[in-house]
Amino acid sequence: MSNYNEQKERQYQNQIVEIFRNELGYRYLGKLQYEQHAKATPDGYVNKPIREEDVRSYLLRKNSGNTPMMADEAIKQLKEMARLGNYRQGDLIAANCKLYDVLTTNVKAMPEKGQNKRDVCFFDFQHPENNDFAIAEEVSYICGLSNKNARPDLVVYVNGIALAVIELKRSIVSLDEGIKQNLSNEFNIIPSFFTTVQFTIAASDKNGFEYATVGTPRKFWCPWKKDGSTVNNETDEVNNVVNPPLGDKEAFLSFFNKDTFMHMVRYGVIDDGGTKKVMRPHQYYALRAAIPRLKNKQDGVI
Length: 302
Known about the structure:
By secondary structure, the protein is α+β, with helices and mostly antiparallel strands. The chain has eight helices and 15 strands.
Protein backbone atom coordinates (compact mmCIF):
# COMPACT_ATOMS: atom_id res chain seq x y z
CA MET A 1 0.00 0.00 0.00
CA SER A 2 2.81 2.42 0.85
CA ASN A 3 4.36 1.90 -2.60
CA TYR A 4 1.00 2.62 -4.22
CA ASN A 5 0.57 5.83 -2.19
CA GLU A 6 4.10 6.95 -3.01
CA GLN A 7 3.44 6.29 -6.68
CA LYS A 8 0.25 8.39 -6.62
CA GLU A 9 2.04 11.25 -4.88
CA ARG A 10 4.86 11.04 -7.41
CA GLN A 11 2.38 11.18 -10.27
CA TYR A 12 0.77 14.27 -8.77
CA GLN A 13 4.13 15.98 -8.32
CA ASN A 14 5.00 15.20 -11.95
CA GLN A 15 1.77 16.88 -13.04
CA ILE A 16 2.53 20.05 -11.08
CA VAL A 17 6.12 20.17 -12.37
CA GLU A 18 4.79 19.88 -15.92
CA ILE A 19 2.50 22.86 -15.29
CA PHE A 20 5.50 24.93 -14.23
CA ARG A 21 7.65 23.78 -17.14
CA ASN A 22 5.22 23.58 -20.05
CA GLU A 23 2.42 26.00 -19.21
CA LEU A 24 4.08 28.63 -17.03
CA GLY A 25 7.46 28.55 -18.77
CA TYR A 26 9.68 28.05 -15.74
CA ARG A 27 13.20 26.71 -16.19
CA TYR A 28 13.61 23.22 -14.75
CA LEU A 29 16.49 22.78 -12.29
CA GLY A 30 15.91 19.05 -11.83
CA LYS A 31 15.67 16.84 -8.77
CA LEU A 32 18.11 18.18 -6.20
CA GLN A 33 17.93 15.30 -3.74
CA TYR A 34 20.95 14.16 -1.74
CA GLU A 35 21.74 10.50 -1.46
CA GLN A 36 21.55 8.97 2.01
CA HIS A 37 24.14 10.49 4.40
CA ALA A 38 25.39 12.80 1.63
CA LYS A 39 25.82 16.55 2.04
CA ALA A 40 25.47 17.46 -1.63
CA THR A 41 23.77 16.27 -4.80
CA PRO A 42 25.50 13.51 -6.81
CA ASP A 43 27.16 16.20 -8.97
CA GLY A 44 28.49 18.01 -5.89
CA TYR A 45 25.98 20.85 -5.66
CA VAL A 46 25.02 22.07 -2.16
CA ASN A 47 21.44 23.34 -2.07
CA LYS A 48 20.87 26.80 -0.61
CA PRO A 49 18.12 29.42 -0.68
CA ILE A 50 20.45 31.58 -2.78
CA ARG A 51 21.85 30.02 -5.97
CA GLU A 52 24.83 32.31 -6.26
CA GLU A 53 25.72 31.65 -9.90
CA ASP A 54 22.12 32.21 -11.01
CA VAL A 55 21.99 35.50 -9.11
CA ARG A 56 25.24 36.59 -10.73
CA SER A 57 24.02 35.57 -14.17
CA TYR A 58 20.91 37.70 -13.74
CA LEU A 59 22.79 40.72 -12.39
CA LEU A 60 25.24 40.61 -15.30
CA ARG A 61 22.64 40.03 -18.01
CA LYS A 62 22.89 42.08 -21.18
CA ASN A 63 22.08 45.78 -20.72
CA SER A 64 21.83 45.44 -16.93
CA GLY A 65 24.32 48.24 -16.38
CA ASN A 66 25.94 46.25 -13.57
CA THR A 67 29.65 45.51 -13.43
CA PRO A 68 31.20 42.28 -12.08
CA MET A 69 32.32 44.23 -9.01
CA MET A 70 28.76 45.42 -8.41
CA ALA A 71 27.41 41.88 -8.79
CA ASP A 72 29.96 40.45 -6.38
CA GLU A 73 29.26 43.11 -3.75
CA ALA A 74 25.47 42.77 -4.12
CA ILE A 75 25.67 38.99 -3.71
CA LYS A 76 27.92 39.38 -0.68
CA GLN A 77 25.39 41.71 0.97
CA LEU A 78 22.51 39.38 0.06
CA LYS A 79 24.21 36.35 1.60
CA GLU A 80 25.11 38.25 4.78
CA MET A 81 21.51 39.38 5.28
CA ALA A 82 20.21 35.87 4.59
CA ARG A 83 22.43 34.33 7.27
CA LEU A 84 20.34 33.34 10.31
CA GLY A 85 21.95 33.68 13.74
CA ASN A 86 19.71 31.15 15.48
CA TYR A 87 16.45 29.40 14.80
CA ARG A 88 14.06 31.12 17.16
CA GLN A 89 10.83 32.04 15.39
CA GLY A 90 11.22 35.76 16.01
CA ASP A 91 14.72 35.82 14.58
CA LEU A 92 13.64 34.09 11.37
CA ILE A 93 10.78 36.50 10.81
CA ALA A 94 12.95 39.54 11.60
CA ALA A 95 15.63 38.36 9.16
CA ASN A 96 13.02 37.58 6.53
CA CYS A 97 11.37 41.00 6.87
CA LYS A 98 14.69 42.81 6.63
CA LEU A 99 15.69 40.82 3.57
CA TYR A 100 12.30 41.38 1.95
CA ASP A 101 12.85 45.14 2.08
CA VAL A 102 16.10 44.69 0.17
CA LEU A 103 14.67 42.20 -2.33
CA THR A 104 11.89 44.61 -3.27
CA THR A 105 14.14 47.68 -3.46
CA ASN A 106 17.90 47.49 -3.94
CA VAL A 107 21.36 47.42 -2.44
CA LYS A 108 24.17 49.80 -3.31
CA ALA A 109 27.53 48.80 -4.76
CA MET A 110 30.49 50.49 -6.44
CA PRO A 111 30.93 49.85 -10.20
CA GLU A 112 34.69 50.10 -9.83
CA LYS A 113 37.05 51.08 -7.03
CA GLY A 114 36.78 54.73 -6.10
CA GLN A 115 33.52 55.32 -7.97
CA ASN A 116 30.21 56.35 -6.46
CA LYS A 117 27.90 53.54 -5.44
CA ARG A 118 24.91 52.69 -7.62
CA ASP A 119 21.67 50.81 -7.06
CA VAL A 120 21.59 47.09 -7.73
CA CYS A 121 18.15 45.45 -8.00
CA PHE A 122 17.63 41.70 -7.69
CA PHE A 123 14.35 41.67 -9.66
CA ASP A 124 12.76 43.53 -12.56
CA PHE A 125 9.24 44.15 -11.26
CA GLN A 126 8.30 46.41 -14.16
CA HIS A 127 9.00 43.71 -16.74
CA PRO A 128 8.34 40.27 -15.19
CA GLU A 129 9.38 38.47 -18.38
CA ASN A 130 12.94 39.72 -17.86
CA ASN A 131 13.35 37.61 -14.72
CA ASP A 132 14.63 34.03 -14.60
CA PHE A 133 11.86 31.79 -13.20
CA ALA A 134 12.90 28.28 -12.19
CA ILE A 135 11.42 25.26 -10.44
CA ALA A 136 13.35 22.58 -8.54
CA GLU A 137 12.02 19.42 -6.93
CA GLU A 138 13.10 17.26 -4.01
CA VAL A 139 15.41 19.99 -2.71
CA SER A 140 17.45 18.41 0.07
CA TYR A 141 18.73 20.88 2.64
CA ILE A 142 20.82 20.49 5.79
CA CYS A 143 20.41 23.31 8.32
CA GLY A 144 23.60 24.28 10.09
CA LEU A 145 21.63 25.72 13.02
CA SER A 146 19.37 22.78 13.83
CA ASN A 147 21.64 20.05 12.44
CA LYS A 148 18.51 18.61 10.86
CA ASN A 149 17.56 18.05 7.25
CA ALA A 150 14.42 18.14 5.15
CA ARG A 151 13.48 17.88 1.50
CA PRO A 152 10.75 20.30 0.30
CA ASP A 153 8.80 18.89 -2.63
CA LEU A 154 9.17 21.97 -4.83
CA VAL A 155 11.03 25.26 -4.56
CA VAL A 156 10.45 28.25 -6.82
CA TYR A 157 13.56 30.32 -7.53
CA VAL A 158 13.48 33.69 -9.28
CA ASN A 159 16.86 35.01 -10.40
CA GLY A 160 18.47 32.39 -8.18
CA ILE A 161 16.60 33.38 -4.98
CA ALA A 162 14.15 30.97 -3.31
CA LEU A 163 10.80 32.75 -3.05
CA ALA A 164 8.29 29.91 -2.59
CA VAL A 165 8.30 26.46 -0.98
CA ILE A 166 5.58 24.00 -1.97
CA GLU A 167 4.47 20.83 -0.19
CA LEU A 168 2.26 18.44 -2.15
CA LYS A 169 0.00 15.76 -0.71
CA ARG A 170 -1.95 12.93 -2.30
CA SER A 171 -5.72 13.12 -2.23
CA ILE A 172 -6.26 10.84 0.78
CA VAL A 173 -4.08 13.08 2.98
CA SER A 174 -5.51 16.25 4.53
CA LEU A 175 -4.15 19.57 3.29
CA ASP A 176 -3.39 20.29 6.95
CA GLU A 177 -0.54 17.81 6.73
CA GLY A 178 1.19 19.88 4.06
CA ILE A 179 0.68 23.05 6.08
CA LYS A 180 2.02 21.42 9.25
CA GLN A 181 5.04 20.20 7.29
CA ASN A 182 5.76 23.71 6.02
CA LEU A 183 5.47 25.21 9.51
CA SER A 184 7.67 22.51 11.02
CA ASN A 185 10.32 23.07 8.36
CA GLU A 186 10.23 26.83 8.92
CA PHE A 187 10.76 26.86 12.66
CA ASN A 188 12.07 23.48 13.77
CA ILE A 189 13.90 21.66 11.00
CA ILE A 190 15.41 23.92 8.31
CA PRO A 191 14.70 27.55 9.36
CA SER A 192 17.81 28.91 7.63
CA PHE A 193 16.34 27.95 4.24
CA PHE A 194 13.38 30.28 4.76
CA THR A 195 15.13 33.64 5.16
CA THR A 196 14.45 34.51 1.50
CA VAL A 197 11.14 32.63 1.11
CA GLN A 198 8.03 34.82 0.84
CA PHE A 199 5.33 32.24 0.08
CA THR A 200 4.60 28.80 1.48
CA ILE A 201 2.12 26.59 -0.36
CA ALA A 202 0.29 23.36 0.44
CA ALA A 203 -1.66 21.60 -2.32
CA SER A 204 -3.48 18.37 -3.07
CA ASP A 205 -5.18 17.05 -6.20
CA LYS A 206 -8.44 16.65 -4.29
CA ASN A 207 -8.15 19.02 -1.34
CA GLY A 208 -7.13 22.23 -3.08
CA PHE A 209 -4.41 24.88 -2.79
CA GLU A 210 -3.66 27.19 0.13
CA TYR A 211 -0.91 29.75 0.57
CA ALA A 212 0.66 31.86 3.29
CA THR A 213 3.92 33.58 4.15
CA VAL A 214 6.60 32.68 6.67
CA GLY A 215 5.22 32.47 10.20
CA THR A 216 1.54 32.38 9.23
CA PRO A 217 -0.54 30.34 11.73
CA ARG A 218 -2.72 27.61 10.24
CA LYS A 219 -5.98 29.54 10.67
CA PHE A 220 -4.77 32.33 8.38
CA TRP A 221 -3.77 30.18 5.39
CA CYS A 222 -6.15 30.82 2.51
CA PRO A 223 -7.09 29.50 -0.94
CA TRP A 224 -6.45 31.37 -4.17
CA LYS A 225 -9.41 32.70 -6.16
CA LYS A 226 -10.22 34.25 -9.51
CA ASP A 227 -10.72 37.97 -9.96
CA GLY A 228 -14.45 38.54 -9.70
CA SER A 229 -14.35 42.33 -9.90
CA THR A 230 -16.23 44.38 -12.47
CA VAL A 231 -15.72 48.00 -13.50
CA ASN A 232 -18.46 50.55 -14.10
CA ASN A 233 -17.23 52.39 -17.21
CA GLU A 234 -19.22 55.53 -16.39
CA THR A 235 -18.13 56.00 -12.77
CA ASP A 236 -14.88 53.99 -12.92
CA GLU A 237 -16.08 52.26 -9.74
CA VAL A 238 -14.73 48.76 -9.09
CA ASN A 239 -17.11 46.22 -7.57
CA ASN A 240 -15.27 43.32 -6.02
CA VAL A 241 -17.07 39.96 -6.17
CA VAL A 242 -15.98 36.98 -4.07
CA ASN A 243 -15.45 33.88 -6.19
CA PRO A 244 -15.14 30.31 -4.90
CA PRO A 245 -11.60 28.93 -4.43
CA LEU A 246 -9.82 27.61 -7.50
CA GLY A 247 -8.92 23.96 -7.82
CA ASP A 248 -5.29 23.07 -7.26
CA LYS A 249 -4.09 23.11 -10.87
CA GLU A 250 -6.02 26.27 -11.76
CA ALA A 251 -4.58 27.92 -8.65
CA PHE A 252 -1.02 27.02 -9.65
CA LEU A 253 -1.59 28.44 -13.13
CA SER A 254 -3.03 31.67 -11.73
CA PHE A 255 -0.88 32.31 -8.65
CA PHE A 256 2.42 31.41 -10.35
CA ASN A 257 1.66 33.25 -13.56
CA LYS A 258 4.85 35.29 -13.91
CA ASP A 259 3.14 38.66 -13.85
CA THR A 260 0.86 37.75 -10.93
CA PHE A 261 3.63 36.15 -8.91
CA MET A 262 6.03 39.08 -9.26
CA HIS A 263 3.22 41.47 -8.38
CA MET A 264 2.49 39.42 -5.25
CA VAL A 265 6.19 39.41 -4.34
CA ARG A 266 6.36 43.18 -4.74
CA TYR A 267 3.10 44.23 -3.10
CA GLY A 268 1.49 41.18 -1.51
CA VAL A 269 3.69 40.68 1.55
CA ILE A 270 3.49 43.06 4.52
CA ASP A 271 5.55 43.53 7.67
CA ASP A 272 2.95 44.50 10.28
CA GLY A 273 5.05 45.39 13.31
CA GLY A 274 7.22 42.28 13.06
CA THR A 275 4.41 39.98 11.93
CA LYS A 276 4.49 38.97 8.30
CA LYS A 277 1.16 39.03 6.51
CA VAL A 278 0.14 38.19 2.98
CA MET A 279 -2.61 39.65 0.81
CA ARG A 280 -5.76 37.64 0.28
CA PRO A 281 -7.05 37.34 -3.30
CA HIS A 282 -9.69 40.10 -3.04
CA GLN A 283 -7.08 42.48 -1.61
CA TYR A 284 -4.65 41.64 -4.39
CA TYR A 285 -7.19 42.24 -7.15
CA ALA A 286 -8.38 45.47 -5.53
CA LEU A 287 -4.79 46.71 -5.43
CA ARG A 288 -4.25 45.85 -9.08
CA ALA A 289 -7.39 47.74 -9.99
CA ALA A 290 -6.24 50.76 -7.99
CA ILE A 291 -2.64 51.02 -9.22
CA PRO A 292 -3.41 52.55 -12.67
CA ARG A 293 -5.45 55.31 -11.02
CA LEU A 294 -2.78 55.90 -8.39
CA LYS A 295 -0.20 56.34 -11.15
CA ASN A 296 -2.49 58.86 -12.87
CA LYS A 297 -3.36 60.51 -9.54
CA GLN A 298 -7.03 59.66 -10.00
CA ASP A 299 -9.51 58.95 -7.25
CA GLY A 300 -12.13 56.21 -7.25
CA VAL A 301 -13.99 53.67 -5.17
CA ILE A 302 -12.87 50.05 -4.76
